[in-house]
Design brief:
The structure holds two protein chains of two kinds. By secondary structure, chain A is an alpha/beta fold. Helices cover about 40% and strands about 20% of the residues of chain A. The longest helix of chain A has 15 residues. Chain A is globular and about 60 Å long. The relative contact order of chain A is 0.12. The mean pLDDT of chain B is about 95. Chain B is of the alpha/beta class. Classes of the chains: A alpha/beta, B alpha/beta.
Chain lengths: ~325, ~325
């Protein structure tokens, strides 16, 4: 199986889906001539031409809305945001137009559109360019939200997203584009709504997604050195969320830590904790712990930034708390 | 002789078109009057924005479209839905929130949809649907068709960013879209000149290098002619047009608002009523001998019966099944 970067896996997914279906097109800032701000669209303009790889002005609300309109008229747009930080300007189109079109039209207008781009903290980009929007988007009925952690999942989930007849949010980890992994060639589809156990264990479940999967896996290694067997459950999809996978793991370990890049208040972890307390209350041996971004805007200073982000050490400490080891 | 026959056929076609526009306007007027009654009776809930006074805009512009063209509107769209041929019963049933409504009772007054007639809503966020119109036009051009998209919005939407972003991209990409601004002078209770630095909406076209035309919106024929020119431009070369159609709403912003309130005078409303678009066209057709008062009366009677039937249909239709709550959230 070929080894690819996360970036190239996404590129492969786009290329394959554009080859497969002429109604699929890519639109966003710098996606064409510049080859993508993060080089996800490298080579696509040359292969598919300017009609299908469309450079836009810096006008997120406008081109997100143009994508929605194009989907209303039968195309399958892939709208790239240079980062999700800028997509806030387009939230009206994502929430009020895309997510509700099928419902408020009484089922008449499907909305096969993908909104994708990098999400989550980067390195020393300070407050406006370093944040995770997962819970904001996962809150909205009518959307699907995926957040792949590996190159293989990035390819498989993006391909599934493009073929889906609903608006799908693809949250790409801004710090993941360079990571490498085995990626199946050709028809590799990861179903939306299915979690994946990235490491099996028996003592504690670490529930995570996107970049925090890497964080949790490192924490699991450190815990193994302390004779603690941690299971790492990668949610992969935030809406719909794979409740059975969460419950199955917690039933086995009786302890859970939820890790995410977002802020704690009303975060994705809060939803996971709700699922666990509702359906696995009697199986819990300790209150569920959460590891999140600190409840502050992201600071620029690198020491402060490190203190703000989830880290393997913080996850290890939380795991030890649910195991009553501290 | 052949020329005379052709001329006479043309006149007849034109008379037919004018009669058709008059009928559409009258249908919209009678429909909205009934909607106001039904609202007062509590049969229609929420926000309900009536079109009375603005009928010439929908009737005139829609007459310039083909059935395979696309239409998208703001939340003041009962008139456009009827003008596009959505059955009055399906529109009234939607206002009543019934299962037989054109959006199955899930959209209401602000979200009328009829995909088969390429009537793509009914959108409730001011200006939010203007980029959607450009997107529909993008898809039409992508598919190499010669259809166009006609987009209606009020003058208040001109102050929002979505309008400017959409016009810019529509011009850069030469999209077959007509941006039709219905300037009825007030965004809810705020006079346009109080909040707009440039009060001739057409002037904005200069910023985006697109064609523009200022149109008398109380005259269905001028609206038709201007829209026809814009449609032709869009169909032939994909060039967008901004039409500023000057019109006036007789009613309050929505049914929850007063008729004139403190932001305009009763006299102003009365003055505008003297330019009533239906009376104008009816008088013209009577002068030309296309129809007499008797024909007009029977047209009106027929329309009143049609609207009564729509109300009866809406009244007698069932509410959506309880299970409908959770359908249409996601497609298969």
């Amino acid at each position: 199986m070929p080894t690819l970067t996360y970036r190239d896996a996404l590129n492969q997914a786009l290329r394959e889906e554009m080859q497969r279906d002429p109604d699929v097109f890519l639109m966003g800032e710098e996606v064409g001539v510049y080859q993508g701000a993060y080089k996800v669209s490298r080579g696509l303009l040359e292969e598919f031409g300017p009609q299908r790889v469309v450079d836009t002005p810096i006008a997120e609300l406008g081109f997100a809305g143009i994508g929605v309109g194009a989907a209303m008229a039968g195309l399958r747009p892939v709208i790239e945001f240079m980062t999700w930080n800028f997509a806030l300007l387009a939230l009206d189109q994502i929430v009020n137009s895309a997510a509700k079109m099928l419902y408020m039209s009484g089922g008449q207008l499907r909305m096969p559109i993908v909104f994708r781009g990098p999400n989550g903290a980067a390195l020393q980009l300070s407050s406006q360019h370093s944040q995770a929007w997962d819970s904001w988007l996962a809150h909205i009925p009518g959307l699907k939200v995926v957040a792949p952690a590996t190159p293989a999942d990035a390819k498989g989930l993006l391909k599934s997203a493009i073929r889906d007849n609903n608006p799908v949010i693809v949250l790409e980890g801004e710090m993941l584009y360079n990571i490498k992994g085995d990626v199946p060639e050709g028809e590799h589809l990861v179903p939306i709504g299915r979690a994946d156990v990235k490491r099996t264990g028996t003592d504690v479940t670490l529930i995570c997604h996107s970049k925090t999967v890497t964080v949790a896996l490192k924490a699991a290694e450190q815990l193994a050195e302390q004779s603690v067997s941690a299971e790492v459950v990668d949610l992969r999809s935030l809406r719909p969320m794979d409740e059975p996978a969460i419950l199955e793991s917690v039933a086995k370990t009786n302890r859970a830590v939820v890790v995410e890049e977002g802020w704690p208040h009303c975060g994705v972890g809060a939803q996971v904790v709700d699922i666990i307390q509702r359906d696995a209350f009697d199986q819990l041996d300790a209150p569920v712990q959460r590891v999140t971004q600190a409840d502050v805007p992201m600071p620029y200073n690198k020491h402060l930034e490190r203190a703000a982000k989830p880290s393997p050490e913080k996850v290890v400490a939380a795991a030890r708390r649910v195991l009553y080891l501290e | 002789m052949a020329t005379a026959t052709a001329q006479s056929a043309k006149d007849q076609t034109q008379s037919e078109l004018h009669r058709h526009m008059l009928r559409d306007m009258l249908l919209i007027r009678r429909f909205e009057e009934k909607a106001a009654e039904a609202y007062a009776l509590g049969k229609i809930g929420g926000f309900c924005h009536l079109y009375i006074g603005q009928e010439a805009v929908a009737a005139g512009s829609l007459a310039a479209l083909r059935p395979d063209d696309y239409v998208i509107c703001s939340y003041r769209e009962h008139g456009q839905a009827l003008g596009r041929g959505v059955p009055p019963g399906a529109v009234m049933a939607e206002l009543f929130g019934k299962a037989t409504g054109c959006s199955k009772g899930k959209g209401g007054s602000m979200h009328l949809f009829d995909a088969g007639r390429r009537f793509l809503g009914g959108h409730g966020i001011v200006g939010g649907h203007i980029p959607l119109a450009a997107g529909i036009a993008f898809a039409l051009k992508y598919k190499s068709g010669d259809q166009v998209c006609l987009c209606y919005f009020g003058e208040a939407a001109v102050n929002i960013g979505a309008f400017h972003e959409a016009l810019n991209m529509a011009s850069v990409w030469k999209l077959p879209v007509i941006f039709l601004c219905e300037n009825n002078r007030y965004g809810m209770g705020t006079a346009f000149e109080r909040v707009a630095a440039v009060t001739d909406v057409v002037e904005h076209a200069c910023s985006y290098d697109i064609a523009a035309e200022m149109v008398d919106g109380m005259n269905a024929l001028t609206v038709y002619e201007a829209t026809r020119r814009a449609v032709e431009r869009a169909r032939k070369g994909g060039h967008p047009t901004l039409l500023e159609v000057r019109t006036y709403r007789y009613m309050g912003h929505s049914m929850s608002d007063p008729l004139h309130g403190v932001y305009r005078t009763k006299d102003e409303v009365e003055e505008q009523r003297k330019r009533d678009p239906i009376t104008q066209l009816a008088d013209k057709l009577k002068e030309e001998g296309v129809l007499d008062q008797g024909a007009l009366d029977s047209m009106d009677a027929e329309i009143r019966a049609e609207v009564d039937a729509a109300v009866q249909f809406a009244d007698e239709s069932p509410d959506p099944e309880a299970g409908e709550l959770a359908t249409d959230v996601l497609a298969d």
